[in-house]
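quick one before i forget lol
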Amino acid sequence: MEKVVLKADRRSVTGKQVRALRRAGILPAVLYGHNMEPLSISLNAHDASKILNRLTASSLVTVDVEGKEYPALVRERQRNPIKGNLIHVDFQVVSLTEKIRANVGIVITGTAPAVKDFSAVLVTTLNELEVEAYPQDLPERIVVDISGLKKIGDGIRVGDLVLSEKVTVLTDADEMIILATAPKEEVLEEVTPEAAAVEEAAEPEVIEKGKKEEEGEE
């Protein structure tokens, strides 16, 4: 995995005064976690945003604070509600010798023959998996190929996925990820009980949680 490094400086400015930093192109952030007290830092907003925008919640990043490196995960990104730009980031420092639990996002790829041949409706009920691994072995995303869904009722469960032996999946193996269901206009009896249950399931909400620093927003 390519080593991703973010350059940062220690930050003494906190509270509402960080607004001036943001206007100067500085992104305030905080480091917290493994065997350390929370550390306020600042990054170049333009350079950091380009890197952070391509990282997922399970991407390992090295935060270089004035020459000292901290392996970390991005735990929370706060954005300006109007402009959409980053205004604060929380980094959780981790140990490369201790396994951690993390939620990894699911990415659907491919084309399901059931959609073309039977006008199936694809219902997705999971968009992330909980896994355990060493930080450097965490997958950035889990790709699920749906080209094997050939008819109504075909689906992909967590247990069907093949991941690295370095990654332990904690989500129940019987959990359905995606299912090809009958079109809405078809007779109810033609829909399998499993398909009906999946259609009624609410899609889980994904929230990146982290330690928040009390700061004023623009």
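fyi The mean pLDDT is 88.
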